[in-house]
Write a structure and sequence with these properties.
This protein is of the alpha+beta class and 152 residues long. The protein has six helices and four strands, in the order βαβααββααα. It has helices at 32-43, 58-63, 69-72, 88-98, 103-109, 115-132, and strands spanning 23-27, 50-54, 77-80, 85-87. A four-stranded mixed β-sheet has the order 2-1-3-4. Strand 1 (23-27), helix 1 and strand 2 form a beta-alpha-beta unit. Helix 4 (88-98) runs antiparallel to helix 5. The longest helix has 18 residues, at 115-132. The chain starts with 22 loop residues before the first strand and ends in a 20-residue tail after the last helix. 25% of the residues are buried.
Length: 152
């Protein structure tokens, strides 16, 4: 393992995370597709832990006051414990990259020749999300009532 001059490992996770120790995934709790994706992601083995928070919720606003919370309801948003933020296709890649069995897939999809295809897939998923999300969701500030998957 490579170390810094002080003897600390460059990658404390030991999995190529570049110092990232965790991701917070801000997902649309008013969308059945998004809740299903959340359950799928949570059920996988993680190289980098994923913490799920309902986008636009009081908890999300408290934890990340500098984010545009209306925008987090439009696109999947991932925040690393380092402060890095990804949205849209970058957020999906970050989620896949965090999973034990899917890191290589994320890295492959992010390559220039496959990136346009990956972006189209994310765009289709976003279009489906808009059709299946619950009416009126996102019209008020506290959306925590859907964070436990009981609203759908």
């Amino acid at each position: 393992m490579t170390s810094t001059p002080g003897g600390h490992p460059l990658d404390p996770t030991g999995h190529g995370a570049g110092g990232i120790r965790g991701f917070t995934v801000l997902y649309d709790a008013g969308c059945p597709l998004c809740r299903s994706a959340r359950r799928w992601l949570a059920s996988r083995d993680h190289l980098v832990p994923l913490d799920f928070v309902a986008a636009g919720s009081a908890q999300a606003r408290r934890r990340f006051p500098g984010l545009d919370h209306d925008a987090t309801l439009q696109d999947l948003t991932v925040v690393a414990d380092t402060g890095a933020v990804w949205t849209g296709d970058g957020a999906w890649f970050a989620c896949l990259w965090a999973l034990a069995g899917h890191r290589a897939t994320a890295e492959r999809l992010a390559r220039p020749h496959l990136l346009p295809l990956a972006r189209r897939v994310v765009a289709v998923a976003a279009a489906v999300r808009e059709r299946v999300r619950e009416p009126g969701y996102g019209d008020h500030d506290d959306r925590a009532e859907c964070a436990d998957d009981r609203c759908g």
